[in-house]
Design a protein that fits this description.
The chain is an alpha+beta fold. It contains 10 helices and 8 strands. It has one domain (about 1-70, about 120-290, about 330-440): Outer membrane efflux proteins (OEP), CATH 1.20.1600.
């Protein structure tokens, strides 16, 4: 967090914050990662998921805490009086009569406060489940951060590799255009055939097409990177790390030698928490057999606005306590517990299978990285060789010691070598990222 604050202060100092007037931004790979952590929208959403889980836990806990409400009711019976007739007999005459008692009902207002607590086993286990949900949300947030950093690393390396390919293609195009100009001049003075110049023209067009394709690919990479970094579309990015530092052999080899600790893997952590959650679900279902406790208290105060009634049957203080015990549920709770047990056993099998898969994946990804690095080393040498061959052939062509066919072939080989080279870089980067994600080393 301190690193992010320092980065934000630096951005403010140089006017580099997204959305500011400054539209140019120079970033190293590490600075790009820090920017993504600070501004990536997907990562922000995963942080909100943690806060949502924390709020849900408190909602569950709050159901076990006292709930207090206050109210005020006004009542006016519009002068109505309740009559109570009591039959009586005159002792002297024996005549049946009735004694009438009237109860006045003046307007009144009642203020009341009600407090209650209800606790059950399901609420307690539910709060425990919410704790696991928070931990899972936090693991998911860290996994999302890992994915974002992986995407930034991949895009950064691809952009730098594309820039180098564009530089190589531009130089090759410049040379082949020079050769084509010389061939056209040779045709004009009658020492060469038009077909030779036409072949070279086709090669010029191929190189131009490859160059334009590389530029479009670079633009796509930059746009994707801006999304990951949370930058404005108009921001111009300049990447300061070179390809050599991004494809460092020592870091590759040290990564291959790193021991795989399965407990550090986020997929393992999530599945482990999910297994724990499934086990808690069994307890939650079993709590259907547990009793629940209710406590309540009510205070009320009636204010009469026009005299007092003859009879008041509203007690000001009432306390209540109750316990409910489920006696017969027609097998509903039993079936629910059995279902959760089967789900737990199923998930445990998946968990054990995943452990074995991750161990095998570790060996495979290390093998893939070794192979990708070997291929990169070969393609790096190949592009250097084909570039020297192309320059040599073009030099010979200027002195009439090489044909247009040789130039065309050398140019074609160079384009193929450049494509193979960038593909090897991307494959090696992907292999490195996959292994880093597995080892939790991003």
């Amino acid at each position: 967090m301190n690193k992010i604050k320092v980065l934000i202060l630096i951005f403010f100092a140089f006017g580099l914050l997204p959305g500011q007037a400054q539209n140019r931004l120079s970033l190293s790979l590490q600075q790009a990662k820090d920017t993504a952590i600070a501004y990536n929208k997907q990562l922000r959403n995963s942080s909100y998921d943690v806060k949502i889980a924390q709020a849900q836990r408190w909602q569950t806990i709050a159901t076990m805490l006292p709930q207090v409400t206050a109210g005020y009711d006004y009542q006016n019976m519009m002068g109505f009086k309740m009559e109570m007739r009591i039959p009586t007999t005159n002792p002297l005459t024996g005549e049946e009569t009735a004694m009438v008692i009237e109860r006045a009902s003046p307007p009144s207002g009642t203020f009341s406060i009600t407090a209650g607590v209800q606790i059950s086993g399901q609420q307690i286990v539910g709060a425990m489940i919410n704790n696991i949900a928070i931990e899972m949300a936090d693991i998911t947030r860290r996994q999302t951060e890992q994915d974002v950093l992986s995407a930034v690393t991949q895009l950064y390396t691809s952009a730098v590799a594309n820039e180098k390919i564009i530089s190589l293609l531009s130089e090759s195009l410049k040379n082949i255009k020079s050769i084509h100009t010389s061939a056209e001049e040779a045709v004009r003075i009658g020492v060469s055939e038009q077909t030779d110049a036409d072949k070279l023209l086709v090669q010029v067009m191929k190189l131009e097409s490859s160059l334009n394709s590389a530029r479009r690919g670079l633009e796509l990479v930059y746009n994707s990177m801006k999304i990951q970094l949370g930058l404005d579309a108009s921001t111009e990015l300049t990447l300061t790390d070179n390809l050599e530092s991004l494809t460092n052999s020592e870091s590759m080899l040290s990564l291959v030698q790193t021991e795989f600790r399965i407990e550090d893997n986020y997929n393992y952590q999530l599945l482990s928490k999910n297994l724990e959650l499934s086990k808690r679900q069994i307890k939650l279902a079993a709590m259907g057999y547990s009793p629940s406790l209710k406590l309540g208290y009510r205070y009320s105060n009636i204010k009469y606005f026009d005299g007092e009634p003859m009879m008041n049957m509203n007690p000001p203080n009432v306390f209540s306590i109750g316990v409910s015990i489920p006696l017969f549920t027609s097998g509903r709770v039993f079936s629910s517990v059995r279902e959760k047990k089967y789900s737990y056993l199923k998930l445990r099998n998946t968990f054990e299978d995943t452990q074995n898969q991750l161990q095998i994946q570790s060996k495979q990804l290390k093998y893939n990285l070794n192979s990708a690095y070997e291929d990169y080393s070969i393609q790096k040498t190949n592009i250097d060789v084909t570039n020297r061959v192309f320059n040599n052939v073009t030099e010979k062509f200027h002195y009439g010691k090489a044909s247009s066919l040789e130039v065309t072939q050398a140019s074609t080989d160079l384009i193929s070598a450049q494509n193979a080279y960038i593909q090897a870089i991307i494959s090696m980067t992907n292999a490195q990222i996959e292994l880093k994600k597995l080892l939790n080393k991003m």
